[in-house]
Design goal:
Elements (H helix, E strand, L loop, with lengths): L3 E7 L4 H10 L6 E8 L5 H8 L4 E3 L9 H14 L4 E4 L8 H6 L4 E5 L11 H7 L4 E8 L9 E8 L6 H29 L1 H7 L2
Parallel strand pairs: 1-2, 1-4, 2-3, 4-5
Antiparallel strand pairs: 5-6, 6-7
Helix pairs in contact: 1-6, 6-7
The structure holds glycinamide ribonucleotide (GAR).
């Protein structure tokens, strides 16, 4: 099968990245991971990726003080060098500038731990609890300039249970994230395969 080369961008533990690694290991899955990249050289997920035999790269944002675009240019060059066609943000905790978003427009996905458009940004589980919501969940969406604002590809819901804490809710949502991201990416790739404009761009 002709697998689309993707990059996974992480900042920390990388459990969503791991879900993508496991999905990509399946012969019938339509993507392969060409690069795992982090802004944080100490991200635990980098070691997980190395153990899985994947190419990894850290581009430390602290080496680009007050130069977000410079940092993103270095990232963009690395993605292009690796032959990446689709970028998956998976717990990548830097707000992107229009430079990188523009370079990967329509080819960059993000997973967010809320039912967008509810609760963009941080502390989503605390905010769902404070609002007294009965349902919570996660979203995979295309990345656009507005933070957590891009078109929604897929969502998964969980119930909020009485006695839930932010931690217990986060755990329940994360289990769904690990199912949702591989499924949403596969659906996105199969959809793009039908579009004449994308057909050429998605595989080598
Ligand atoms: C995940 O819950 C992901 O949805 C969230 O960070 C966590 C990363 O966990 N992302 C965001 O909040 C982005 N706005 P992981 O490193 O174990 O995948």
């Amino acid at each position: 099968m002709n697998k689309t080369p993707i990059a996974v961008l992480i900042s920390g533990r990388g459990s969503n990245m791991n879900a993508l690694i496991e999905a990509c290991a399946r012969s019938e899955y339509p993507a392969r991971i060409a690069l795992v990249l982090s802004n944080n050289p100490d991200a635990a997920g980098l070691e997980t990726a190395r153990q899985a035999g994947l190419a990894t790269l850290a581009i430390d944002h602290r080496l680009f003080p007050k130069d977000r675009t410079g940092h993103e240019k270095a990232i963009d060059e690395a993605l292009t060098r690796a032959g990446v066609k689709v970028v998956c943000l998976a717990g990548y905790m830097r707000v992107l500038t229009p430079y990188l978003v523009g370079r990967w427009s329509g080819h960059m996905l993000n997973i967010h731990p809320s039912l967008l458009p509810l609760y963009p940004g941080l502390d989503t589980h605390e905010r769902a609890l404070a609002a007294g919501d009965s349902r919570h969940g996660c979203t995979v969406h295309l990345v656009t300039d507005g933070v957590d604002e891009g078109p929604i590809l897929q969502q998964a819901e969980v119930p909020v249970l009485s006695g839930d804490t932010a931690d217990s809710l986060a755990k329940r949502v994360l289990e769904q994230e690990h199912q949702l991201y591989p499924a949403a990416l596969a659906a996105f790739l199969s959809f793009c395969g039908w579009l004449p404009c994308c057909k050429r761009k998605m595989t080598h």
